[in-house]
Amino acid sequence: MKILLHIQKLSAVIIIGICIMIFSESVFAGCKRSHVVGCDNAACTQGRSEKQCTYSCDECDAADTSCHTGTYTGMESCGGSPPPPGSSSSSSSSSNSSTGSNSSTSSSGSNCTSKTFKKASIVPQTVSGGVDVMVKCDYGEDVNCISISGGGLTNCSLRYYESGEGSIFLCKAPSDPGTYSGAVCKLSGSCCAKSDSIGSFTVVSNTPHFQQRMRLPSGTYTLSGKVQALIVKGKGAQINLICRSGTCFAGKNENAVISSLTFPESADFVEKNTQIIIPSEGGNKDYAISIAVQDGSEAYIDSVKMMSGTTNYVVNGEFNLISDTSVNSLQPIAWGIANNRLGLYYGMAYQTVPQTAYNPPANPTASVTSGPAVSVKLSMKIKLQGIGKKPINASPIKVKVKLGGRALSAPTAYQTGTFTPQDDGVWTGKVDFTVPAGGGYLLYVKGPKHLQKKVCVNKPSENPAGTYHCSENNVNLVAGNNEIDLSGILQLAGDLPGADGNQNGLIDTYDVSAIRQNLQTTDQAKIAIGDLDLDNGITTSDWSLLVQSLGIKYDEE
Question: What's the whole-model pTM score?
């Protein structure tokens, strides 16, 4: 692995006639034990003011991920040889530094303040090229001498400080696909200079919505797809072959795009293909076929193939592996013809299902009335995404319900019902309204951590799970009790309550961070917000549920 070392020009500080060299921003800043290998002393006899020396780091501080053992070179003044970084006297300080203080001498000769690095992260860790990312640098306090450097990040600006999270920056990700690991939180100015690794992140050619991994031998392949791109924004709709091994071939590393098909906006399906040659050095390595749709674009995917001779390496059979209680947005249900085509809505995985998949209304010609208001009770059953049986946390939940439709001049106010779980994972509860009896109604149902679902019939169903969508208002209500069975459709999770307990009607960076940044947390307050499957913890299962719901993203209105 080639490592680029950034060595700043070293400055000298003259203290009582002694020349002391200060090293800053070295990747060996976290070195616990090191030594000088040797110096080119001959340079000093030739009238030069500096000589080149080689240093070796023998042991790294386990907490400093930017440090590694090995050697590097640097320049020293011919007037003196400072101890190497990581040795017992490697931290040079001015003679008037007080014991126990965090003050030392910077390379400019002025006092600087040492800061203790806590943690750093970048969110999200997989992004499209050129999009905004959030970078967090935590030194345990609000520090005004931090900047972001390296890793291809540009246009970084400090937005705010949050206790426990650190200084929050917004940066622009690089445009070229690949995995980047060189980004650092950089201290300078009044802070003693140092750099701390942020960690790695991956840039993909476009946001992947469906992906299938495979191991490919060397040979010649034809990647093809049949796509109708209804709206094209940015890079539009793409089918990519991605490297999923550490390195594949021809300098292509993990997450790099090997080949790509881009589809134009069209009134019908367009078939495109491209030939790919995987040489012997790339054989028997991991790859992935990825469907990606730029935000703002919309496309239907009819078929995708990766052919070598008569063998298709895209296995459609695995797309049928889906349970009744979850939606899998990493794999499409099928890449068949017409009736199973996929609709990727505004860059999100939104599957369009033919009308035959829905139950017809029990009474299509139910009358719409504006008669006198009567007491109407809804005895409801609902099914929450990711919960197939009574959960570990079986506490009752609050669910909001309101009515809309042609019988009302405007939707009703929300009525909140208390719902309790049954052994089969169905939740039951009741809400009351005072409205005219009759047909033409629709229901709006919103769970405590869920997107709002609009429902048009008394007993809806869906296939595949999570895809129910309706437009005709055919809920029929009578005076007294009404059985509303919504257990055949899922309430999609992801719109989490804020600190004030309110939801904002969409899945955004707050919801993503509340789960992604708190995986395996023991903080009960955070678990109460981000635990979607009610197993009393925030785990990768909760993260998967959130990702699946991103296909809808907004409350239905």
Answer: 0.41
